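This part of the workshop introduces the protein records we will be handling. To make this concrete, we reproduce a full record directly below:
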Amino acid sequence: MKGVMIENYGGCEVVQLRTDLPKPCATPGQVLVKVACAGINFMDVHTRQGKYATSVTYPVRLPCTLGMEGSGVIVEVGEGVHNLCVGDRVAWCIAWGSYAEYIAVPAQRIAKIPDGIGFDMAAAAFFQGATAHYLVDDIARLDSGSTCLIHAASGSIGQLLVQMAKARGAQVFATASTEHKCAIALERGANHAMLYDQGRFADRIREATYGQGVDVVFDSVGKSTLRDSFRACRTRGLIVNYGNVSGSITDLDPIELGEAGSLFLTRPRLADHMADGVTVQRRADAVFAAILEGSLNIEIEGRYRMEEVQAIHARIEAREQIGKSVMCIDEIH
């Protein structure tokens, strides 16, 4: 079987395209899927770098086949699986091994794809769509009249957060690193977009909200923005730190949350909000329905073959990849 794997952690050079990988089989509780497309995510870079080497939430270990989301057709059903059948068109996420021709996926991670959603869109939308969905619905619980700040709003998840927040009636403030990226956030529906400006975004938001600050801050940047995110948030507001692309804060004293206005700070992970097959399908249904009705727009920036994996990893790591990309494994109709 052809697939992309790593045996050591490191840079792009550790990524291997292999043609001799053993084809998996469906053990009890699993399904075997012939992969059509695999989503390409920053989590793939983190996997390669070893950031999940000791993770409990994401227990991926060496050696491993890369890729943690994808789409395809079920070709084998393991013992004990009753809600899925051979021939079902499906998508999955947080199940490693998607950069390959076949993958064995726990049935509880699988969602059926509706008619009208192609394999490429399913692979591009599921992981990040589900992430944005639980952040907006379960964590922030945004509704009409809510205010929120979304960092990295031109990124793949950022764009989805903007659209979902607007669909729920929230007022959206967005930040980005360039004027071009701010324009992307505005195109997706943000009410206001601004540069980080070395933390001065917090002053602009305080001014725009008459000194109050926003109800919720979605911060995927981490070290370079988190404390200014505190300043941008209202008293008893919520800070959702769901990423740390600029690095982790290692010197945070909880008293800072009190001094900033009795703030709530959470660091959620998708795995804890995709705990069973019913929840997985519910989130998939919400994301795919929004795409089909036109309220959620996801543009696939690039389609790649397995042979191009090192190049695309380099682009993602250099922050040159803004939108979502997929790896086309096989042509399945």
